[in-house]
Amino acid sequence: MSNNLDLSLVCMESLLEVPSTLSKPKKRWHLAFATIYCSRALYSLLNHPVSNNKKRSKTLLTSPPSFVILNVEPQHGFSNFDQHSLTQIVKHKSLTQLLELGGVEGVAIILETDVKNGIHGAVEDVTRRRKAFGSNAYRKPPTKSFFYFVVEAIKDVTILILVACATLSLGFGIKEQGPKEGWYDGGSILVAVFLVISVSAVSNFRQNRQFDKLSKVSDNIQVDVVRDGRRQQISIFEVVVGDVVCLKIGDQVPADGLFLDGHSLQVDESSMTGESDHVEVNTSLNPFLFSGTKVADGYARMVVTSVGMNTTWGEMMSTISRDTNEQTPLQARLNKLTSSIGKVGLAVASLVLLVLLVRYFTGHTEDENGNQEFHGNLTKADDVVNAVVRIIAVAVTIVVVAIPEGLPLAVTLTLAYSMKRMMAEQAMVRRLSACETMGSATTICTDKTGTLTLNQMKVTKFWLGQDPIREDASSSIATNVLKLIQQGVALNTTGSINMATSGSRYEFSGSPTEKAILSWAVLELNMDMEELKQTCTILQVEAFNSEKKRSGVALRSKADNKVHVHWKGAAEMILAMCSTYYDASGSMRDLDHVERTTFEQIIQGMAASSLRCIAFAHSQLPEEEHEIREATQKLKEDSLTLIGLVGIKDPCRAGVRKAVEDCQYAGVNVKMITGDNIFTARAIATECGILRPDQDMNNEAVVEGEVFRQYTPEERMEKVDKIRVMARSSPLDKLLMVQCLKQKGHVVAVTGDGANDAPALKAADIGLSMGIQGTEVAKESSDIIILDDNFASVATVLRWGRCVYNNIQKFIQFQLTVNVAALVINFVAAVSAGEVPLTAVQLLWVNLIMDTLGALALATEQPTKELMEKPPMGRTEPLISNIMWRNLLAQALYQIAVLLTLQFKGESIFGVSEKVKDTLIFNTFVLCQVFNEFNARKLEKKNVFKGLHKNKLFLGIIGITIILQVVMVEFLKKFADTERLDWGQWGACIGIAAASWPIGWVVKCVPVSDKPFKLSKVVGISLQRYKLLLFSFLSL
Questions:
Q1: What is the C-alpha to C-alpha distance for residues 365 and 356, in angstroms, rounded to an integer?
Q2: Which residue has the higher pLDDT, 86 or 620?
Q3: Ranges for the P-type ATPase A domain (predicted)?
Q4: What are phi and psi of 86, to 5 degrees?
Q5: Which of 992, 947, 1007, 858 lies closest to 407, judged by CA?
Q6: Coil vs helix vs strand at 485
Q7: Are 669 and 443 in contact (CB under 8 A)?
């Protein structure tokens, strides 16, 4: 009894599991049958028990339940599916185990996927799959915490020097003045260090978060899938197990899966295996596809078997974190500059320390009462220690002055701000270095389609033979020719056609060119794509690529079993493969020299009207020839019959001409590199302003890729600057152009969208990929992604690149003026009087608060028209230009002169005490920096107030700085070691500081040489002077 019962229950259980692949009527029949079967099985068991145990049988018979509940609802899970097993089959490429499951079709049945129409795609279906198999996202390593950036900031050499100075100052201050007031100098340095660390850590932490946001945007790839029989684009994160994904050249495989159908599919698995050779994927030998790999050639459809963390790519990426600590070339140069300035400060501080110690121990210093401080053995040891501590404190103050803490902060703020603004203007920065490098760009090599043009293509002309077909094309074309055109369009394409949800119009998918041709064939020629696919079997496909500029297909007609070859591609290339053509009546004619010339003129005429010319050709193959060609995997490429020509219009973008002119006005050469023929390329280039009407092939401004390739290296180097347009170019030609330009010293920016553009994008100084039409391979190879594919956005990136460099130069000029003036004043005062007028607290206030606020004010200046009026900066352009040296030295000399006058004559001029005099020096020095901040806004222009009203942040920071200075002078007397000033003294300080405006205006009238100013010579002269000073003091 128990065995029979178990067996019956197993049968019932299997019957109740309704396969979801069945149609609704069949499901109802299945459930009805299951109900009847189960009822009969239970009735049989109850009335005919087979058991030796009679009592048990009677109990079972006499105690039946009053009713029976049967669960006849279909199951919605994947209980019979072992996800881990299938994942391992794909990972290990186990063909044997795959065949045991029934091959790819068997897996599709298990995953409840229709291989033609995909999954159902309803919200419930997608949710169920995501719940069963997980989402297509991988766990990322935890983001770096704020504490991590604090620790990184502490490791900075500048910070370590300041901490050492603070420790010494704190110890010496408490020893000399007691703990109540002795902590001021050392404590203020520690406060300054804390602020530097905090600002740096906050800035880097926010930048890291910004990178994470950008990463999410760049990782959000759009994927073509088939759901419920409709081809549609979804986010890669929305892909689920069972999805049918459409792949083409340049796509990234979004998840692990199996090859369903396709042709000539070659996959680059180097990201997974490190092997550079492309792997062929097909149904018979290798149907396995892996997430993260790239499609190198061909096209295909795949069924997804694993997503997210269940893929090999997911496991690998979960252990990799994005490195946001990238140091740009400019940051490296600034760190070097900061280090050099710090070394100069240490050298000066050491010199001052030596001079002061020599002065003290030789008896040339006096105390407050005018008595000699050092009396040899008569001086108390405690007095000697205090004097030495005071001298060391002076040296420490000079070191603090010399270190420009604000420089690295200024770069970080500028780059972060510019990245955020560029994102808002349709440019996503993937590598920080590109922000600044773009400012130095001297040449931009741009694509045509989608960048200079709208990428909204439409067939506007059609030629059959040598006659243009204008309206009602289908009725005026011979039946045999119409059938061949429809066949060539429908079966030699990677695009697809779907009916819109409303059912009243068509939806076309594929590349813009494919969509234009499909739309024309359906709407003008009444083509039925699905019907044509049913009448033929595709035998072999040669996918389109940018080198061959054509695609072909071999197919067998089911009606007569004959083999046909169709080609489609660049008109002049297809024409060269033809020996005959169809005329308007449908008759085949020989293509002799005269006829060929006529066709070439037709193609040139369409190209001159800015049309992209596409030709269709056909040939019928004898069975014997087909077998030979099938063995060699080569389609017939000669003696074809030309079917017709179409002209596709792609209008130029609005504003592209102005953007090109802006770049040219800024001294940047714009070159167009396109795959179109030379006449189309010339017409578009002239329309966009890249080419003048008088420039053509005669003056070498326009060249074909093949011609450029055949030049000798010497000829290429000689002619590359003259070239404005390269037509019929391959990706290799683009790479060759970039290499030549770089060898000539150009800073090259390149735009690209195809997988084959990757080498040129990597070789360029700045790679710009297209966000809409760009393949994932191109995006990964680029530095900046142009999100709207518009050349105007490229010009915007150029403007922001120059703005970044210019803003940093402004701040360097401002920062070094502060440092040079403070260093010289303290050095001269220390050597001459043995003390410094600006204390460590005051200098740190100037160096830190003003520099931090100054960095924020100058780093956030917007791009101006003046930036595009200057020629680009070359690779070897010095960071500190001659113009900056002129402005910097003039302001620094004025400040030094004024402050030294106050130092030595201030008491008598103003009739004040020494304490008030020192406060006047400090206040005047700070206000000089406030006024000089206005001068720093414009490096060359005399009117420094232009556009000031637009920069509310700058005005706000100036206001905050003045308020803080008033608080420092008037209310923090003990901490800042200051005295209160009256209105007259404030007026005098403001008047002296305001004089920097007219000085700045006059100085900018002084011309400077273009020859770079050598800092090493100045440093050499300065060191010689320091040595002379040292010897003079030692001789006293």
A1: 9
A2: 620
A3: 222-319
A4: -65, -40
A5: 858
A6: helix
A7: yes
**Orientation of helix 791-833 relative to helix 406-424, angle to 10°:** 170
Cα separation, 715 vs 734, whole angstroms: 16
Share the mean pLDDT of the chain.
Answer: 80
Residues 108-130: tens digit of each pLDDT:
888 888 888 899 888 888 988 88
Distance, in Å, from the CA atom of 796 to the CA atom of 663, rounded to the nearest integer, reads 10
Per-residue pLDDT reduced to its tens digit, 714-768: 999 999 999 999 998 888 888 899 999 999 988 899 988 766 677 888 888 899 9
The residue that leads in pLDDT, 370 or 675, is 675
Integer Cα distance of 950 and 934 in angstroms: 14
Q: What are phi and psi of 262, to 5 degrees?
A: 155, -170
Nearest to 614 by CA among 454, 459, 773, 453: 459
Structure tokens at 730: 């391959």
Q: What does the block give as tokens for 545?
A: 């690529």
Q: Which tokens belong to 398?
A: 């000079």
- Looking up tokens 């440092």 gives 819
Q: Which residues are catalytic?
A: 447
How many Å apart are CA 964 and CA 850, to the nearest integer?
10
CA angle 363, 367, 371 (to 5 degrees): 65
CB atoms within 10 A of CB 292: 19
d(CA 490, CA 482): 12
Integer CA distances (angstroms), 1010 to 634, 746, 1013, in order: 61, 19, 9
**Phi (first) and psi of residue 233, to 5 degrees:** -100, 130
| SS3 state at 314 | helix
974 by Cβ neighbours in 10 Å (0-12 / 13-18 / 19+) ranks as: exposed
The pLDDT of residue 177 is above 60: yes
Question: 519, 515, 512: which is closest to 454 by C-alpha?
Answer: 512
Phi, psi (deg, nearest 5) at residue 352: -60, -45
Return d(Cα 420, Cα 427) in angstroms, integer. 9
Q: How many helices (H) and strands (E) does the chain have?
A: 40, 26
pTM equals 0.69
* Six token digits for residue 586: 């449908």
Identity of the residue numbered 691: L
Residues 6+ apart with CB under 8 A from 370: none
Q: At residue 249, what is the residue type?
A: I
Name the amino acid, one letter, at 548.
K
Q: Which residue has the higher pLDDT, 138 or 75?
A: 138
Using an 8 Å Cβ cutoff, are 420 and 316 in contact?
no
Strands 640-649 and 458-464: antiparallel
CB 543 within 8 A of CB 551: yes
Which residues neighbour 309 within 8 Å (Cβ) at sequence distance 6 or greater? Answer: 134, 138, 139, 315, 318
Nearest residue to 647 via CA among 688, 616, 693? 616
Residue 7's pLDDT is what? 43
- Measured in degrees and rounded to the nearest 5, phi and psi for residue 306 equal -145, 145
> Is the sign of the CA dihedral 452, 457, 460, 462 positive or negative?
positive
CA dist., res. 300 & res. 222, Å (int): 16
Q: Residue holding tokens 């002799």? A: 592
Amino acid in position 641 = T
What is the rounded distance in angstroms from the CA atom of residue 493 to the CA atom of residue 766? 34
Lowest pLDDT segment from 815-829, 845-859, 872-886: 845-859
Residue 472 has pLDDT above 80, yes or no: no
User: CA 885, CA 897: separation in Å to the nearest integer?
Assistant: 18
Yes or no: say if 621 and 636 are a contact pair by the CB < 8 Å rule: yes
pLDDT tens for 204-263 read: 787 677 667 766 776 777 888 999 888 888 888 899 999 999 988 878 898 999 999 888
Name residue, tokens 């040489």.
Answer: 1009
Using CA atoms, how far residue 48 sits from 3, 5, 54, 66, 673, in Å, is 14, 12, 12, 19, 87
Residue among 740, 780, 741, 773 at smallest CA distance from 754: 773
Average pLDDT over residues 182-205: 76
